[in-house]
Amino acid sequence: MNSSLLFITLLCLTFFSYWFGVKRSLKVAGGAEHKKNLTCLPQQFGLLTAMVCGLPALITLLIFNSVENTIIEQILATTLPANIQALSTIDLGLYLNNIRSIASSETITNLIKSIENQSLNNANLATLEQLKAALTLKELHQQVTWLKTSLVLVVAITSVIVLVRQFSITFKARQKAEAIIRTLLVASSGIAILTTLGIVISVLFESIQFFRSVPPTEFMFGTQWSPQTAMRVDQIGGSGSFGAVPLFAGTLLITFIAMLLAVPVGLMIAIYLSQYANTKLRRVAKPMLEVLAGIPTVVYGFFAALTVAPVIRNLGESFGLSVASESALAAGLVMGTMIIPFVSSLSEDAISAVPESLKEASLGMGATKSETVIKVLLPAALPGIVGAILLAISRAIGETMIVVMAAGMAANLTANPLDSVTTVTVQIVTLLTGDQEFDSPKTLAAFALGLMLFITTLGLNILALKVVRKYREQYD
Amino acid sequence: MTNSIKSSTDNTQMNDSIQQKSTVTITEKVTKSLKKRHRKEKRFKIVGLLAVLFGFMLVLTLITDITAKAIPAFHQHWVKIDVDYKSAWLNIDDTAAATQLTNQMQTANYRKVLRNSIYQMFSTGAEKKLTRQDKRQLTKLFSTNAEFTIKDKLIAKPNYINKKIELWVKLDDDVDSYLKEDFPLGEAGLRVSKKQAEWIAKLSTEQRIDSRFNLSFFTASDSREPELAGIKGALTGTLLTMFVTLLLSFPLGVAGAIYLEEFAPKNRWTDIIEININNLAAVPSIVFGLLGLAVIINIFELPRSAPLVGGIVLTLMTLPTIIIASRAAIKAVPPSLREAALGLGASKMQVTFSHVLPQAMPGIITGGIIGIAQALGETAPLLMIGMVAFIVDVPTSILDSATVLPVQIFLWADSPERAFLAKTSAAILVLLTLLLVINITATVLRSKFEKK
């Protein structure tokens, strides 16, 4: 049985054991009419039985699936002839790959027979060895699958039997079921921690490997970025240099342009909607902002690359300026558009959190509405607004699709918004899509960039939360 | 405070100076400045209104631009050709037995039939014989798919052998774009030569060209030829990926929220989890892609490009959103409800699952749908785990190689062929429609639950 079929069988078995648990508990009570004798409801017995049936078996299945392949390959490696076992890990991996692809075809036994019938020379012997290894692999797979199926089913059935034999009138089925549910709840909330841990470990581990071949100082302060490493030793022009300063500069340039659009517009929208607009306008404007916020970034990227960039280039050329076809300005402006709703909703929250009394006092003193906003509301809401801007910056830095589609690949170190620049996220995508070999500095560089990105956005986020929290303490 | 004190001292100083001059009173001064202040107020208000209008303008431009670009993708030009199923061209022995004939039909030379039929159509009458270059240009007018249309027709109706049949086939994407762009009849256009344009003019005066609804956009998978490419594969991939995401993220997210809101003791560990979740919500999505690549693919060795892996990565990404929204919804349930149920002897678990959770459901569902909508439009992490491959087959299980709609949009946007521009816009419209449907479902579900 393969894994998905086994999973479905397990599911059926779990449903069955619910029913079985209910029946058994009633039998223990002495029939359905005496079910009041039980300390817990029959359904609670059923729930407990179902969980005891399904959970351990499911865990067994998952563990088995994750270690299955490694074990099979290790067993296979021991059966291989000595001269192949002596190969380096990379060559051995290739050899095993070969065997795996042979094993997926149906006609191995026929192939072996046809070769055995021919005269045996060296080349034939090598193929024959491979074919035999593939056959072993196939048999091993079958055996392991049988082992897995039987193991999972045995675990499921024995745990149910062991449980059911404990059933008595005073058996605390509910408490036990609730304890299991509680464990599951704790585990689900722990997934967030595991995710963070996974991110930190995976990114950090690969980055350390990267920094072994490229010194961190070169990465942090070098101004040359050309990650093409040589495939052959004698290749020209593929030395690879990993100075990430142009990427950081490009990211900051595009973020700066985005903020230049998003902060004033977003802030003004927030002020107007919270202080001036009537309910009618608000009722239309809120969904408008939601639409802007809900549009997928790939759509913004398409818009930036195919609509905004040509417009900017034509406009620039009519003024006699030379504009790159993938200018930082186009990517930045569209990114700014994407961030407007983010800035406006967070700043609106900050403005509306200012106590009404401050506003009323100012208006009562004869200040106009705009004076109240500029001199009273904004200063009071400043920490919240700063927090919003910090979060928006963190978002702009981590934004990927817009820059991948609209910003360039060339790592230029420039502050000219009409030039083409590249960003950290663009480089991560280019380094990790397409042909790649793991453990080459080119691939590992992406993880080092990812680490930078993670640290920066995390730092900005923590800073923003701190600023906002400090401000809340003032009025609460 | 210091500010106001300072300004009041300023005022007294000003008052003194005014009293010394005793020419302008305060009221006069205020009245004088009032005009200026009101002007300022008006200006500020207009700037605010402009900002809001600017937002509207952005939305409008975005939607109209994409819709306008998408419209050409929904129809496609077909052409009627006279196909001559000559057995010599097909390389079929028409005297063979029926069973043999069907076998032969599968492997017959339909390309030759197509080409020769076209040459026949254009070399009749007063026109001179076609040169080699003419022939090449002529075949370029028709989609590479025409060959298969001819094949399918013959297999469906075997008695067409040695007959001349009128058949509708697709035009090439360059010709299709040319026809959609209203060039004057017979004039050369983008990627269409003068000679080709004259042929097209001839075809259209003979009423052989027809514009039809492009059904294959929804029923075909990706292709290198724009006139054949469709979104079925990507849409299926999206559905499978969303299925995995929904199945994992919703239960896990709600369970996590229930624990943190109802059971977790107020201690350091809970604090750490809380801070963690808030920070995780702000981590760029591409970092989750790195996690997927390094851990799920390289360590757990799940298959690359599979919807299962995509679903897991998107689950990790949307989990914080769902947990935060669900916690807010659970928090909003009045404590009196819990206390009443506890007072009647229900256990904490029973209170949570049969009283608090149903009450919190509208909020939880909204949160879940926001998370799913976010996952639906996400592209970057899926690029990392290899869902960018060119995949022609429609995926049938969560372990097959697949791509999703946003990634398909990304791939098409990168293609050099002009006709893919319209396809990309059309795919975007489909994606936006999906998002709209999801959001409407959220609103409907929410109101339904609230009525209860």
Please provide a written account of the structure.
- The complex is a heterodimer of chains A (476) and B (452).
- Chain A is mainly α and 476 residues long.
- Helices cover 78% and strands 1% of the residues of chain A.
- A two-stranded antiparallel ribbon of chain A has the order 1-2.
- Chain B folds into 3 domains: 69 residues; 145 residues, no CATH class; 220 residues, MetI-like (MetI-like fold), CATH 1.10.3720.
- Chain B contains 19 helices and 3 strands.
- In chain B, helix 14 packs across helix 16 and helix 16 packs antiparallel against helix 19.
- The two termini of chain B are 52 Å apart.
- The interface between A and B is large, with 87 and 87 residues.
Short note summarizing the structure:
Chain A is mostly helical and 476 residues long. Chain A has helices spanning 3-29, 42-79, 82-85, 89-103, 108-117, 122-166, 173-213, 216-221, 245-276, 279-294, 297-318, 328-352, 356-364, 369-398, 401-406, 424-432, 441-475, and strands spanning 225-226, 241-242. Chain A folds into two domains: 3-171, no CATH class; 241-475, MetI-like (MetI-like fold).
